[in-house]
Amino acid sequence: LFGDMTYEGGGSINGPFLGTLGASAAIISITAGLGEFLGYSLRSVAGYIADRTGKYWPISFVGYAINLLAVPAMALAGSWQIAASLILMERVGRAIRKPTVEAMLSYSTGKHGKGWVYALNTALDETGATFGPLLIALAVYLKVDFKGAYGLLLISSLLALATLVVARVIFPVPSRLEAG
Q: More exposed terminus of the chain, fewer Cβ within 10 Å: N or C?
């Protein structure tokens, strides 16, 4: 929920923000396309590493930290090159954490049901993906500049990271969820 609020909220203004920093339409498009390419192509690498090492939590923390902190860091970007780099970092972070989160979720399906676990996860994702851009739209409507809007997303970033810490404390070994 909070993760999607953060990166979908930031994603809703990435293009216009890059434009205010002097990026051309071509640069904005290339950045978005390259970000998506990296975000999807690196998932198999991250998933392979997670499965081989069994280090689901550390990999998740690294991915979430990159994914969630790159967005509010956009408030500090002074050039389109730095902003574009942060957009790419955000997508790479998501690629790193996505397979590990899915793997850990799969351990809870035996007890709670595959449909319920994935439906709940998707519902939280979609809710965050809706509220994030709406929050940013409200901020922009209230005359908050782009950098202030990105800064506002630090709240959802920190809430997502705090939630991750709580999950790690409660479920230190996700595979034990299968046994109940």
A: C
H-helix segments, 21-145: 25-41, 43-53, 56-70, 80-107, 109-112, 114-141
102-117 pLDDT per residue, tens: 989 888 887 778 898 8
Query: What is the pTM assigned to this prediction?
Result: 0.92
Tell the burial category of 142 from Cβ atoms under 10 Å away from its Cβ (0-12, 13-18, 19+).
exposed
Would you say how long the chain is, in residues? 180
Please answer whether residues 6 and 156 qualify as being in contact, where contact means their C-beta atoms are separated by less than 8 angstroms.
yes
Mean pLDDT of 145-159: 98
Show the tokens assigned to 83. 């902003």
Buried b (16+ CB within 10 A) or exposed e, 25-61: eebbeebbeebeebbeebbeebbeebeeeeebbebbb
- Compute the Cα dihedral for 132, 138, 139, 144 and give only its sign: positive
Q: Which residue has the tokens 């046994």?
A: 179
- Specify the DSSP class assigned to residue 78: -
